[in-house]
């Protein structure tokens, strides 16, 4: 968006330079001509919101994916990586945000997976185990090399992931959210290891949602927003406020809360609802949460990944069973009803992942749009094609889907239009309450604004809307009320006039305190 | 500033641009062209092949597999597989034979001779029950379809063998004085010169086609086969759909069993062994995707005819049975190969914008093994 952020190439100390990197997925531009330098022996931190393109950029730099266009220079030489192992052979390794370990194998076998040390009879397991022990000693972790990864707790698994990257002797080490499951002490150890590495000339790229923590370790900060670099600066000159301002931006108007009408009755009432963690029964991902939404009201739920937003919405929609509490729709208890019955009574969910949960890729645009309201065009035993066509055409107009027609394959649409199909599908059921889990995820800013405009129009006509987001700017758009979720509970509630800093602070994003507990909850979506 | 609009126009023209290309036509109608090629080749090789009489005879052979394949198609559209249909076919014949011999009710001291239509209905109910067991195992108890139906393959075959002690019911004709004649009607009679079995297949195909294209159930089936999670969140009763397809598949197998035992005027417990594989082959040759959500009745029937006309043709020109097996296998592999080519282009879907860490499973899948990602693409 910002045409040319201040960009000073510093050839002397740049080990890797990415130039004009563009990456598109279908119709979505994940990266829009990014210039990114990795400085030798320094920690370069990449800041950005979810979906800003951080992970995509890192996957490109580590050879996991290839850019649509653009070039990469390693030590001044132009290079292309054919695969992650190609990049690794050139000294670039990556610690993925999501663990990429084989849980059924031992720590030793995971660390040397794909690069086994040859010995007299196949693999030199003793040598591998010895090196594993050294790595674990470096990381101050007491883990036996023969322990199975599945028997380790999440933080230890992350340590193994880090150890694997360290074992390669890389020149460039990319860490994508390496600390999300680590305890405070483990983070300190990791930071010490990072300083050791940089002292030895290793260049680090660091990505973290914990802004203050990242500020402690960073030498150079780069901010990415909507696929473009918005700011770069030396760590000496920046503070938290600078990062937040550049991450969130304020250049695009996503609308304002619809006004000029009074809210109706309470449409949806969530009473003390808890959802148990799928992996451990004693922990709750949603913890005795209560919430009332009136018809015509737009409520935004903000929270970090793993705060319990998705679980809350899926529980209200009927996909997850609550472990306690009840859900009322228009005053009637619907806790025992199935998804189809809840849809029939006017409660719909637009899921977070539209590829996985929203669309049937084998069907046309029209069949997707009409899927939730088949009953409305059945005549006798058979479907009425003419009625279905009318419904589909009305829906395409209604939510402004840009498509060749109802019979076009769903895969021919851009991300934003696919999302509109998912929303349109649920709107054709004439809902009273609409839940949307990250409705703006992976769609460009224009489509985002269109989706929000659609929601505020519907709210003005009496629809109760609850949407979740991990972008602060979206909270401050059309929502009448902002609810911040943290560890399965409502940690704060604001009107539409809250500030970004208030919201982020309540979500735990900018807070370093109570590290340990927070982190163990941070990855609970697995 | 550059990203707002080009996305939607980019991929759209491609759909129509190659819409009429010859390669695409050949690819999409491949099973049909293969059938024509088979007919031409065998007609040239043998003077006996190209005649109405022979076609009708071959069609009645195809009917058994065609009926099984229609049921199998429903299961495969759902993303499942039903290995038990061959055994269900055999068991149905045995039950029909058993009922035709008369049911002795010792407590009343009478022997009941149910009329043929009652036998047919009871056998279909039996097929549905086998399907119900399959469906409940798969939908509610989460047993993988392959394993559940493999188990039922053995269980049902075993039951058929137990019923007869391994022997065959030979006398299915019934007696006029008992009022249970007419069983051979299915296998021997003709209506307008067309064997009844072929007509039954046609009726089942038409019903299947209407179910798939014109009913809510059909739409639910395509949706839950294409993406079960999305279908469920759209209010589709995915579990009921899943159970239903196995029941329908069981009924199709029972009908096929009735026709086969009627044609043979005997019911052996080993009838229909490995027929499930032929049915799966017909569905696959017909262009359905084993992953679910894609396929139709027309293709499946053509697939059944390809297999039937090929193997009968090989018999007519005197190729040994061993070679027939080899040819049939080669045709199946070729069909799957072409399926892979056809669907490969469509499978490349725009994935959601990268870098978004809110989908652990998906991100994990793509990052876990970069090499896999490359080769799969």
From TrEMBL, chain A:
One of its GO terms (molecular function) is ATP binding. Residues 16-251, 268-512 form the ABC transporter domain. It comes from the Bacteria. Keywords: ATP-binding, Cell membrane, Membrane, Nucleotide-binding, Repeat, Sugar transport, Translocase, Transport. The keyword ATP-binding applies. Belongs to the ABC transporter superfamily. This is Sugar ABC transporter ATP-binding protein. It comes from Mesorhizobium qingshengii.
């Amino acid at each position: 968006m910002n045409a040319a952020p201040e960009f000073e190439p510093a050839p002397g100390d740049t080990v890797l330079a990415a130039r004009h990197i563009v990456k598109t997925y279908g119709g979505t531009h994940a990266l829009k001509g990014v210039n990114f330098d990795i400085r030798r022996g320094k920690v370069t931190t990449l800041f950005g919101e979810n979906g800003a393109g951080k992970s995509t950029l890192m996957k490109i730099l580590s050879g996991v994916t290839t850019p649509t266009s653009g070039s990469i220079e390693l030590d001044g030489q132009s290079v292309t990586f054919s695969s992650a192992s190609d990049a690794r052979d050139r000294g670039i390794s990556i610690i993925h945000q999501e663990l990429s370990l084989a849980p059924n194998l031992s720590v030793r076998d995971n660390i040397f997976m794909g690069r086994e040390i040859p010995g007299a009879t196949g693999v030199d397991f003793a040598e591998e185990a010895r090196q594993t022990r050294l790595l674990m000693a470096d990381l101050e972790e007491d883990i036996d090399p023969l322990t199975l990864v599945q028997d380790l707790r999440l933080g230890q698994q992350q340590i193994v992931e880090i150890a694997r990257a360290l074992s390669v002797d890389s020149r460039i080490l990319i860490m994508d959210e390496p600390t999300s499951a680590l305890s405070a002490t483990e983070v300190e150890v990791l930071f010490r290891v990072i300083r050791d590495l940089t002292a030895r000339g290793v260049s680090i790229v660091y990505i973290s949602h914990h802004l203050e923590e990242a500020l402690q370790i960073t030498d150079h900060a780069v901010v990415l927003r909507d696929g473009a670099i918005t700011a770069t600066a030396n760590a000496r000159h920046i503070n938290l406020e600078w990062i937040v301002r550049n991450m969130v931006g304020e250049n695009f108007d996503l609308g304002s809360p619809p006004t000029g009408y009074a809210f109706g009755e309470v449409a949806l009432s969530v009473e003390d609802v808890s959802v148990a963690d799928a992996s451990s029964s004693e922990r709750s991902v949603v913890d005795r949460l209560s919430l009332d939404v009136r018809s015509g009201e737009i409520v935004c739920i903000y929270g970090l990944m793993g705060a319990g937003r998705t679980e809350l919405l899926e529980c209200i929609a009927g996909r997850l069973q609550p472990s306690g509490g009840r859900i009322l729709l228009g005053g009637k208890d619907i806790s025992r009803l199935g998804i189809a019955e809840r849809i029939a009574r006017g409660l719909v969910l637009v899921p977070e992942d539209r590829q996985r949960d929203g669309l049937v890729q084998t069907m046309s645009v029209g069949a997707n749009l009409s899927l939730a309201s088949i009953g409305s065009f059945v005549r006798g035993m058979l479907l009425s094609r003419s009625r279905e066509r009318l419904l589909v055409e009305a829906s395409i107009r209604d939510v402004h889907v840009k498509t060749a027609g109802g019979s076009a394959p769903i895969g021919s649409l851009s991300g934003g239009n696919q999302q509109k199909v998912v929303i349109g599908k649920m709107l054709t059921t004439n809902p009273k309450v609409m839940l949307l889990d990250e409705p703006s995820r992976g769609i460009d800013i224009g489509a985002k604004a269109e989706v929000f405009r659609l929601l505020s129009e519907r709210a003005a006509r009496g629809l109760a809307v609850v949407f979740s987001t991990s972008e602060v700017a979206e909270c401050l758009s059309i929502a009448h009320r902002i609810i911040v979720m943290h560890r399965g509970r409502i940690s704060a509630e604001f009107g539409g006039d809250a500030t970004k800093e208030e919201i982020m602070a309540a979500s735990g994003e900018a807070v370093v305190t109570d590290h340990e507990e927070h982190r163990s909850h941070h990855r609970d979506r697995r | 500033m550059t990203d707002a609009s080009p996305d939607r126009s980019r991929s759209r023209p491609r759909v129509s641009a190659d819409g009429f290309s010859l390669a695409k036509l050949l690819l999409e109608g491949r099973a049909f062209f293969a059938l024509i090629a088979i007919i031409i080749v065998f007609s040239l090789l043998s003077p006996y092949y190209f005649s109405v009489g022979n076609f009708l005879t071959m069609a009645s052979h195809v009917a058994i597999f065609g009926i099984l394949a229609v049921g199998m198609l429903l299961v495969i559209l759902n993303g499942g597989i039903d290995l038990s249909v061959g055994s269900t076919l055999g068991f149905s014949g045995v039950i029909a034979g058993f009922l035709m011999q008369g049911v002795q009710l010792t407590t009343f001291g009478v022997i009941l001779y149910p009329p043929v239509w009652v036998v047919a209905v009871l056998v279909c109910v039996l097929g549905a029950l086998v399907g119900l067991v399959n469906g409940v195992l798969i939908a509610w108890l989460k047993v993988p379809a392959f394993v559940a139906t493999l188990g039922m393959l053995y269980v049902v075959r075993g039951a058929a063998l137990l019923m007869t002690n391994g022997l065959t019911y030979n006398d299915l004709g019934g007696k006029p004085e008992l009022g249970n004649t007419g069983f051979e009607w299915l296998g021997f009679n003709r209506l307008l010169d067309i064997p009844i079995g072929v007509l039954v297949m046609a009726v089942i195909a038409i019903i299947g086609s209407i179910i798939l294209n014109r009913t809510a159930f059909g739409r639910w089936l395509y949706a839950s086969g294409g993406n079960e999670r999305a279908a469920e969140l759209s209010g589709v009763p995915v579990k009921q759909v899943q159970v239903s397809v196995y029941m329908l598949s069981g009924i199709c197998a029972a009908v096929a069993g009735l026709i086969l035992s009627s044609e043979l005027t005997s019911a052996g417990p080993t009838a229909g062994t490995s027929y499930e594989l032929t049915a799966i082959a017909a569905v696959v040759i017909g262009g359905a995707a084993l992953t679910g959500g894609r396929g139709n009745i027309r293709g499946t029937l053509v697939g059944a005819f390809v297999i039937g006309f090929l193997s009968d043709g090989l018999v007519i020109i005197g190729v040994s049975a061993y070679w027939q097996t080899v040819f049939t296998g080669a045709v199946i592999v070729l069909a799957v190969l072409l399926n892979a080519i056809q669907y490969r282009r469509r499978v490349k879907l725009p994935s959601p914008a990268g870098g978004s860490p809110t989908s652990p499973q998906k991100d994990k899948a793509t990052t876990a093994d970069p090499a896999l990602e490359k080769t799969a693409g």
